[in-house]
Design a protein that fits this description.
The protein is of the alpha+beta class. The protein has helices spanning 5-16, 22-29, 33-44, 50-54, 58-65, 80-86, 94-104, 111-122, 182-196, 224-233, 249-263, 274-289, 300-308, 391-411, 413-425, 429-446, 448-460, 466-490, 492-498, and strands at residues 138-152, 155-166, 172-177, 202-205, 212-215, 220-222, 236-237, 324-329, 335-338, 341-344, 353-358, 362-367, 370-376, 381-382. The chain has five domains: 5-65; 80-124, no CATH class; 138-311, Nucleotidyltransferase, domain 5; 324-387, no CATH class; 391-486, no CATH class. 47% of the residues lie in helices and 16% in strands.
């Protein structure tokens, strides 16, 4: 507590002139004893007599005894918005930013105080912006759990809303998809990467079946199709840990925003296709991502361009197409079955397990990671000559085929002609062998005459597919059943009376 200089001068006068003790001078003036003693010591250190000091005018005495302290310039606070933005750049640490701050402000705050002010600033930020992710480092992906519907031919159809958030910029993406299948999930990622203009180094999905088959503390088994997507774009899959909500906090916040800003806003709209829904979502996304964030005074799109894109993986030149995956054991005829079509592999792989990747246009077959066959999608058989076995195996097959021709001749001219057509149609004899073995069993079931007539009908339409003959036989069988049913309803006496 500071005391008036005239009170101090009075206390000093009582002490030096009237010879009172320091204690009594302090009591009389109301100044603490320690303060009076302090001023006595200051006078003794001035190099002048006490009498000379007391004769000084009050302002001069004050300058001698209580000079104004040199004012220390106010310390400059670090710019928290700048620090919050810079810390997201690759390789940048708080220590580096503090060192740069001290270079420009030698009397600035210590590193501990620097961190304290930044933590206080962080508490004010939007929750989606608080995570310390580097630019281009991570993208979070999940489904919103809330649907948007459209009307298709009078039927209400629900869509799932796929949501992603980038770690450093909190830039948001959302898209309506048909379902949560692997194909919809993967193609939604493709749309997200296109929207951002790049690919994050790591993608953190929730533990959806579309992404993760098994995830425990000891084992992580990813969906093969999702791994295929990651290989194409070059990102790392790092699923959120089970029962660790903080691992996916950014996308959870993104889901809340999508529900409030988009799904709720579109609740009264009537859509007639999924494309209409997505056309309505995009402008709302753009509006949100262009909105300035408090304290940062920058939009998510601005941060995307400044922080994310310079560090993101570039989009690949080759377009991504979703591929289905299956494991197959190669059968004896070395043709793999995929959705009703049969595709050859090198005959040496008979009995071994192969990986099959297929789209609506092609089928690729791998063994131990090495591609063994590429086929266009077909509805029947696709056989490559280089996959055929050695000639002595082919000769054995031809001998068996000769037996089919001999058998067909015993059944009838049209049956033999039809069998020859099957042999001529198929490139590989083993394929024809499969068809004819089944065809022979059908003849045994229906009888020679019925099959001979069915073959004649099929040939009249230039049909060379055994399925056509089967259809003729089944239709004939149905008609006979109907006729028998009518006869039973009429009763045998009805026809006797007519006669």
């Amino acid at each position: 507590m500071r005391h008036a200089m005239n009170d101090v001068k009075q206390a000093l006068t009582l002490y030096y002139t009237e010879r009172l003790s320091i204690r009594k001078a302090a009591i009389k003036t109301g100044i603490p004893k320690s303060t009076v003693l302090d001023y006595v010591k200051r006078i003794d250190s001035l190099g002048i007599s006490p009498q000379e000091a007391l004769e000084l005018p009050l302002p001069n005495l004050k300058d001698k005894l209580a000079p104004e302290k040199t004012k220390i310039p106010a310390r400059t606070l670090p710019d928290p918005a700048y620090v919050a933005e810079e810390i997201k750049k690759p390789g940048v640490t708080y220590l580096l930013l503090w060192q740069e701050y001290i270079e420009n402000n030698p009397l600035g705050y210590s590193y501990t105080q620097f961190k304290y002010y930044m933590n206080e600033f962080k508490k004010k930020l939007n929750p989606s912006y608080r995570n310390h992710f580097k630019g281009g480092e991570v993208m979070f992906a999940d489904f919103s759990g809330t649907t948007i519907s459209y009307i298709d031919k009078g039927t209400k159809t629900k869509t799932e809303i796929f949501v992603t958030t980038l770690g450093a910029s909190s830039c948001l993406f959302a898209k309506a998809v048909n379902d949560q299948t692997m194909e919809s999930f993967n193609l939604a990622h493709k749309s997200a990467f296109s929207y951002y203009g790049g690919v994050a180094e790591t993608v953190v999905p929730d533990n959806l079946k579309s992404a993760v088959i098994k995830h425990t503390a000891k084992e992580l088994k990813l969906n093969p199709s999702y791994k295929d997507l990651a290989r194409h774009y070059g990102f790392i899959i790092n699923p959120a840990r089970v029962y660790k909500p903080k691992d996916k906090a950014p996308v959870e916040n993104g889901v809340k925003i999508v529900k409030r800003w988009i799904i709720a806003a579109l609740r009264n709209y009537v859509f007639f296709s999924i494309d209409e829904i997505n056309k309505a979502i995009i402008p709302m996304l753009d509006k949100y991502n262009n909105k300035k964030m408090r304290y940062i005074n920058k939009s998510r799109f601005e941060l995307l361009k400044e922080l994310e894109l310079p560090n993101m993986i570039k989009l690949p030149e080759k377009e991504y197409f979703y591929r289905n995956y299956a494991k197959k054991i190669v059968p004896k005829d070395y043709h793999i079955e995929v959705n009703g079509g049969f595709y050859s592999v090198p005959f040496g792989l008979i009995g071994q397990t192969v990986s099959v990747w297929y789209t609506e246009h092609s089928v690729e077959i791998y063994h131990n990671g090495e591609i063994k066959a590429i086929h266009p999608r077909v509805k029947d058989y696709s056989t490559l000559k280089e996959h055929m076995p050695l000639n002595h195996y082919a000769m054995t097959e031809r001998y068996d085929i000769r037996k089919f021709i001999d058998w067909a001749l015993t059944n009838g001219f049209n049956t033999a002609k039809f069998v020859k057509k099957i042999i001529e149609k198929n490139l590989h004899i083993s394929v024809a062998h499969r068809y004819l073995s089944e065809f022979k069993r059908v003849v045994e079931d229906y009888g020679s005459l019925e099959v001979e007539n069915a073959c004649k009908t099929a040939l009249s339409y230039n049909a060379t597919d055994t399925r056509y003959v089967y259809a003729i036989l089944r239709n004939k069988e149905k008609k006979e059943v109907i006729l028998k049913s009518h006869e039973n309803i009429r009763g045998k006496n009805y026809y006797q009376e007519e006669l």
